[in-house]
Amino acid sequence: MSAISIGQAIVLGAVEGVTEFLPVSSTGHLKIVEGLMGIPVDDDAVIGFSAVIQVGAIAAVLVYFSKDIARIVSAWARGLRDRDERYHHDYKFAWWVIFATVPIVLVGLAAKPLIKGPLASLWVVAGSLIVGSGVMWWADRTGRHKRGEDDTSFKDAMLVGGSQILALLFPGFSRSGATMSTALMLDLDRVAATRLSFFLGIPALTGAGLYELKDALGTGAGAAPLAAGTLVSFVVAYASIAWLLKFVAKHSFNAFVVYRIAVGVLLFGLLGAGVLHS
Description:
- The protein is mainly alpha-helical.
- Helix content is 75%, strand content 0%.
């Protein structure tokens, strides 16, 4: 019998889809919802299920930005053949994304025992949610928001890409939260910061999803719940991406700051009350 029902899978797929790309920590939200639904969060089937439905969210960002991705990859391929094409921003940006992914891959491999061990604690997630909120608030307040996407540089890509390590080591920090905050500190405007976060996250998220997928499919989560959760994750994540880009064009990140603090406090409360176990 599957550890997760189809109904639970749909709920968890929606949670994954909403939170994967918003700067609010998908890990924390999934664990909270799993605990509230009485799902054993440390069960191998549940862990595997979470890894599989993440692929749906990753597919959503690939589809949403398919035209941009095709343009950048095409420019990169042309630049490999033609020296004159190497002056185009898209060609250089493709290389920046590749180089900016190297740090998180190296740290992920080197620190795997810590990431899968003590740093996976929900106490760490709760604390990181709150600390990350302070970083985001400061970055949004002090950033000058004067640079657009075409103004990004190799330095920007490396710093923003490298900041993904924070979310890798401290999961509640949120990959999106870390990258967007770093981009804001570099004076990118909110839309440019958000789009850069997406582009730099594509290789890391895709690689991590495929790496986990090979071990997750045989955990016994059930084919029907996996399919339902993944499909819902894809649809909701696609809508979430579209909403976020429109939202940040007109609003600050303050709403996310307040929300993250509330979730962090809630998580501390649930852990302290024994409703969730770290």
